[in-house]
Design goal:
The protein is α/β, with parallel strands linked by helices. It has helices spanning about 20-30, 40-50, 85-95, 185-195, 205-220, 230-245, 265-270, 285-290, 295-320, 330-335, 375-380, 385-390, 410-430, 480-495, and strands at about 10-15, 35, 50-55, 80-85, 100-115, 130-145, 150-155, 160-165, 170, 225, 250-255, 280, 325, 365, 440-450, 455-470, 475, 500-505.
């Protein structure tokens, strides 16, 4: 659900895996920003009346036959434009310059020499050794388009930044959005505030107000059911809708048999304090029977997503006339699931996105769809949610189904629940739970030989996954103390029947995902 804002920076996505970082950086400066596909109609852009437009990077070369293109009319709107990497090269080509394959590719750190402290480099002192920036390109601008000038270069890139002499059109070959570019925020700030004349007026308080207004407008006199898991995403979604339409919201909490130990009891106790109208549905048998014999992770996700919708539609029919289904879908869910904002690669389907049937009787409401996790937590604080719930670790909609590799059985669910509960208990006892992004156990589809009580065992293997992250788009494995890892391992092996080996996952994202399936 798109919000309306007085100010809006528009990011056109050409398939870069860091496009979402551009939006994050803009929002961190309290300026509202939306990402749209590169091929959005020019009439829609005019209707949005953005203060500025940022053209993202992308994996293509501008001279490729199927390279994504935009209309040159974009540059005639009088709206400031900043092209990043591919965006700069595309600007050059479309306006009459030449882009060719570079004889020396540039990936990683580079030193940027500022030739002209133009507006986007305002306040940046020229250094003899240059400024550290992050490059990622195999092509380069060989000839500027008419009216442009070079404002920065690097050792391997004669045109590392450019500016039009009379129009507010800029291009940078480096990536200002990544942390490795030491002047990145300076460049973006200068574009936002000096070129686009934005003011920093977007925050979580304004998001709450505009969301409530947008929900009221969309729902009208209709009724909404909300898929409530008890996590921060779905709870924030429910609270926003509850503030917008009150008693016309019914929350449905489904026990799909794939929840953590004591999860139904814990969740219902949490939700009671918020005064929400919650219907509890025990569908454990239903979900597990549908998953019987299924090992493929994508099939698991599809089955769970489709079954959820069926449950919600059935409950809606009991409630009476219901028009909308609300979900706590976040931007990382969307960007990993559906390649709709540009030609970026689909990584996996998400239960809130890729798992929905093609024809659904209920219309979706997803007020958090454009937010990152840390932004949602700020909204939760704005709504007065308690610290423990605000900072609760993410738990996927498919639940333990994607933390059990292979077939789902009751025995394997019981083993994983016990192991996972011990991991979380030790994380909280040691206070490490509040220092990391996510911690959980995974049950592997293998057995190993062990010795317990002088007897040979042939039992299951549990992997522990603990990661540090800001928004789940990237993550690194957490460097937990050895004694904490030792306690987790000892307790799982000693207290969980059927496990004789514990491993620690030290994979980062990318290349691995946070969840195992």
């Amino acid at each position: 659900m798109t919000q309306s804002h007085m100010q809006n920076i528009l990011v056109l996505d050409f398939g870069s895996q860091t496009t979402q970082l551009i939006a994050r950086r803009v929002r961190e400066e309290q300026v509202y920003c939306e990402i749209h596909p590169f091929n959005i109609d020019i009439k829609e852009i005019k209707a949005m009346a953005p203060r500025g437009i940022i053209l993202s990077g992308g994996p293509s070369s501008v001279y490729d036959r199927d390279a994504p293109k935009i209309s040159t009319e974009l540059f005639d709107l009088g709206i400031p434009v900043l092209g990043i990497c591919y965006g700069m090269q595309l600007t050059t080509m479309l306006l009459g310059g030449i882009v060719e394959k570079s004889d020396r590719r540039e990936y990683g750190h580079a030193r940027l020499i500022i030739d002209d402290p133009d507006k986007i480099f305002y306040g940046l002192a020229e250094k003899e050794v240059g400024h550290q920036v992050w490059m990622s390109h195999g092509d380069r601008v060989e000839k500027l388009a008419p009216g442009f000038k070079i404002i920065a270069h690097s050792e391997s890139c004669p045109v590392a930044a450019m500016a039009h002499e009379s129009r507010p059109i800029y291009g940078v070959q480096f990536h200002p959005e990544v942390a490795h570019t030491e002047i990145g925020m300076d460049v973006l700030d200068n574009f936002l505030f000096r070129v686009c004349s934005c003011t920093p007026d977007w925050n979580m308080s304004s998001f709450v107000s505009s969301s409530i207004e947008a929900i009221r407008e969309k729902v009208g006199n209709g009724r909404v059911i909300c898929a409530l898991s008890g996590g921060v995403d779905s709870t924030v979604t429910a609270l926003l809708i509850n503030r917008a339409i009150g008693s016309r919201l019914t929350c449905i909490f489904v026990n799909n048999g794939l929840l953590r130990k004591n999860e139904p009891e814990v969740v219902l106790a949490f939700l009671k304090q918020f005064g929400l109208n919650v219907v509890f549905v025990d569908a454990e048998e239903r979900f597990l029977s549908k998953l019987h014999g299924i090992s493929d992770p994508e099939k698991k996700r599809k089955i769970i997503g489709q079954e959820f919708i069926k449950v919600f539609e059935e409950e809606a029919s009991r409630i009476g006339q219901v028009d909308f289904l609300a979900q706590g879908t976040l931007y990382p869910d969307v960007i990993e699931s559906v390649s709709f904002k540009g030609p970026s690669a689909t990584i996996k389907s998400h239960h809130n996105v890729g798992g929905l049937p093609d024809v659904m009787k209920l219309e979706l409401i997803e007020p958090l769809r454009e937010l990152f996790k840390d932004e949602v937590r700020k909204v939760a604080e704005e709504l007065g949610m308690p610290h423990e719930l605000v900072n609760r670790h993410p738990f996927p909609g498919p639940g333990l189904a994607i933390r059990i590799l292979g077939e789902i059985t009751r025995e394997r669910l019981d083993i994983l629940r016990e192991a996972d509960a011990l991991v979380l208990e030790e994380m909280k006892t040691s206070n490490w739970y509040w220092k990391v992004w996510q911690a959980f156990a995974v049950l592997l589809p293998i057995r190993t030989v062990g010795v317990m009580g002088d007897e040979r065992t042939y039992d299951h293997v549990v992997a522990i996954r603990v990661v540090d992250s800001l928004d789940a788009m990237t993550a690194d494995w957490s460097k937990l103390p050895y004694d904490l890892l030792g306690r987790m391992s000892n307790r799982i092996i000693n207290e969980v029947k059927g496990v004789n080996r514990v491993c620690y996952d030290i994979s980062s994202k990318p290349p691995a995902t946070i969840e195992w399936e």
